[in-house]
Amino acid sequence: MKKMTLAGIDVSAASLVVAMERDGKPLPVATFENTPAGHRKLGRRLIAGGRTARVCLEATGIYSLDLALSMHATKGIALMVANPRATKDFARAFMQRAKTDTVDAASILEFLRRMPFQPWTAPEPDILDFRALARRINAPVTTQAQERNRLHAGSRCRGLTDVLRIEGEAHIAYLEESIARLTEQAVRIVGANPSLRSKFAHLVSAWHRDPERGPDSGRADCPAPGHDRAPVGCSCRPRSSTL
Question: How far is CA 176 from CA 101, 124, 240, in A?
Fold first, then answer.
């Protein structure tokens, strides 16, 4: 019978705290950097000696995704990505009140031992690309809103010179162009991927039916980044200010 390593991983922005047991025997808690090099080092540790490994970590968005992809791609490692609420309720059921990275990693390891193992499936590359684009679009959208607010506030006082106004308007125009380029690429990915296209169609359909958020409310934007409610192509079009 092939020997196995079990590991529960507590993920933070900078580090991975890992509680492990090998062949049924607990190992000292280890810490790895949450970097590609740290992921590779952890992968080698888990399957050392020709072992297989079962690993559980919580879904923590951007901090856990690269680690999950690395573990998923490593031969010999089976990965489960748990809902943080499920692991929290599990710990509460064991009357566990302490909250440290080491305690959390041990709790995730115990969750892995006792709960049915649900293998994680990595998202399609197109979905990962779309996710990255959507997050990137949010940055200039936020900056653009801040710049507009500054111009608006400055227009109400004597502190806004022509130079500052011109610079602010030029920055807004640059951001609009960036948003438009990124949005165009995101829409292209959605249009070329049947799975994304179907999900987006359902999202837009629900948005149109929602009296609180739909087009008749007079205040809603399309759920696509950088889009409003005019229905063309993907049921919306880029905001006029971004093209």
Answer: 42, 29, 10
Q: Are 113 and 6 in contact (CB under 8 A)?
A: yes
Q: In the predicted model, is pLDDT for residue 214 greater than 90?
A: no
Contact 228, 180 (CB under 8 A): no
**Count of Cβ atoms closer than 10 Å to residue 105 Cβ:** 25
Domain 4-114 belongs to what topology?
Nucleotidyltransferase; domain 5 (3.30.420)
CA distance 154 to 151: 5
C-beta neighbour count of 182 within 10 angstroms: 22
Identify the pLDDT of residue 220. 45
Residue 241 clears pLDDT 70, i.e. is over it: no
Residue whose pair of structure tokens reads 């679009």 in the numeric block: 137
Angle, CA 117 vertex, CA 111 and CA 121 arms, to 5°: 120
> Burial level of 174, CB count in 10 A (0-12/13-18/19+)?
middle
- Look at residues 208, 224, 225 and name the one whose alpha carbon lies nearest to residue 216: 208
Where exactly are the structural domains of the chain?
Answer: 4-114, 125-242
The string of pLDDT tens digits covering residues 62-77 is 889 999 999 999 999 9
Residue 118 pLDDT more than 70? yes
